[in-house]
Amino acid sequence: MNPTAFLLVSLCCCCCLSAAQEETKTTENEHKECQTSQGSCYPDLCKLLKDFGVMEEKLRTTVEKLGVMETRLKVNENQLEELKNYKRKEVIFSAALGGNGHTGPIDHDTTLIYKVVITNIGSAYNPSTGVFTAPIAGVYYFSFFYHAGGSQTKHIALFKNGQHVASSSDHQSSSDGADNGANAVTLQLEVGDQVFIRLMANTHVWDSVNHTTFSGFLLKQV
Questions:
Q1: Number of neighbouring beta carbons within 10 Å of residue 122
Q2: Which range of residues forms the domain containing residue 73?
Q3: Which residues form the C1q domain (predicted)?
Q4: Which residues of 149-160 are buried (b: 16+ CB within 10 A; e: fewer)?
Q5: Is the pLDDT assigned to residue 176 strictly greater than 50?
Q6: Cα(111)–Cα(127) distance, rounded to whole angstroms?
Q7: What are the distances in angstroms from CA 160 to CA 130, 141, 212?
Q8: Of 88, 104, 125, which residue sits at a domain end?
Q9: Which residues have C-beta within 8 Å of that of residue 149, sequence separation ≥ 6?
Q10: CATH value at residue 109
Q11: Per residue in 53-105, pLDDT tens?
């Protein structure tokens, strides 16, 4: 090869290599600048996203806790309402025959009318008729007491809807100046069932200062 031509080719190769190296350096510098730029911005964005994820998880947990609290609140409200209803459904009464003397003897069975109302929560006892009418289905407790002179036969009985349930009685005695008797029962009643006391035919009872009484109250709703 001609020495002059060889020299020209060598110079061209050197120029091309130098240009390539310069371009490579420029690309590396740009890449470093990009990395530097990314290093100053992206970490903040990542931290923001991470914080947002933590906040989202806390919010989800808070919502779940609020749901549990809401459920408990509803349960408490229902229990409170049941307690209020229970108080409104109390049924308690007590009444005395009244007067100052004997009732009877009468030649037929007759319903005793206890006119002196001592307690009547729920207004289930009617002092005009002597009849208790169940306002609520449930189990009730009833008691009845009498006082009477010993010279006459004594016999009173508790009835449910006209059916005899329980009695208290004593025979006539000339040696006994006065007698006392009582009985009590527990009855399951439906709404509208009636309970009352009857003085049986040809017997008597006596009252003064509430000696002869009829009482009852609701034990349990069913």
A1: 17
A2: 18-88
A3: 86-222
A4: bbebbbbbbbbb
A5: yes
A6: 12
A7: 13, 13, 20
A8: 88
A9: 102, 177, 178, 179, 204, 206
A10: 2.60.120.40
A11: 788 888 888 998 898 898 999 888 888 887 776 656 899 999 999 988 878 78
Our count of domains for the chain comes to: 2
Statement: the pTM of the whole predicted model exceeds 0.85: no
Task: Give CA–CA dist 97/100, Å, rounded.
Answer: 9
* Shared-domain flag, residues 81 and 96: no
Residue 143 buriedness (CB in 10 A; 0-12 / 13-18 / 19+): middle
Q: Contact, 133 vs 150, CB < 8 A?
A: no
| pLDDT digits 0-9 by tens, 30-45 | 445 444 444 445 667 7
Distance CA(119)–CA(218), nearest Å, equals 13
User: Which tokens go with 142?
Assistant: 């009833």
Cite the beta strand spans of the chain per DSSP E: 92-96, 101-103, 110-111, 116-121, 125-126, 131-133, 138-149, 154-160, 163-170, 178-189, 194-199, 205-207, 213-221
